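A.,

Following up on our hallway conversation. C-alpha cells first:
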C-alpha cells in the first residue's frame, strides 16, 4: 500500500492511443489518478 504523500511508482498502461507512463508527466505540477470500476458491476 502506498501511503498518502509518498511518491507513486512508475507504471505503463495501454490506452486506445498507445502506451502511456506515469513518468511521461514527471515535472508537471500535479497528476491525478482516477480508477473507474467496470460498468455493470456491484462496486
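Then the amino acids I'd put at each of the 43 positions:
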Amino acid at each position: 500500500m502506498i501511503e498518502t504523500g509518498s511518491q507513486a511508482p512508475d507504471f505503463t498502461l495501454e490506452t486506445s492511443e498507445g502506451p502511456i507512463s506515469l513518468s511521461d508527466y514527471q515535472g508537471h505540477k500535479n497528476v491525478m489518478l482516477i480508477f473507474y470500476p467496470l460498468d455493470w458491476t456491484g462496486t
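Strands lie at 12-15, 18-21. Curious whether your intuition agrees with the design.

B.
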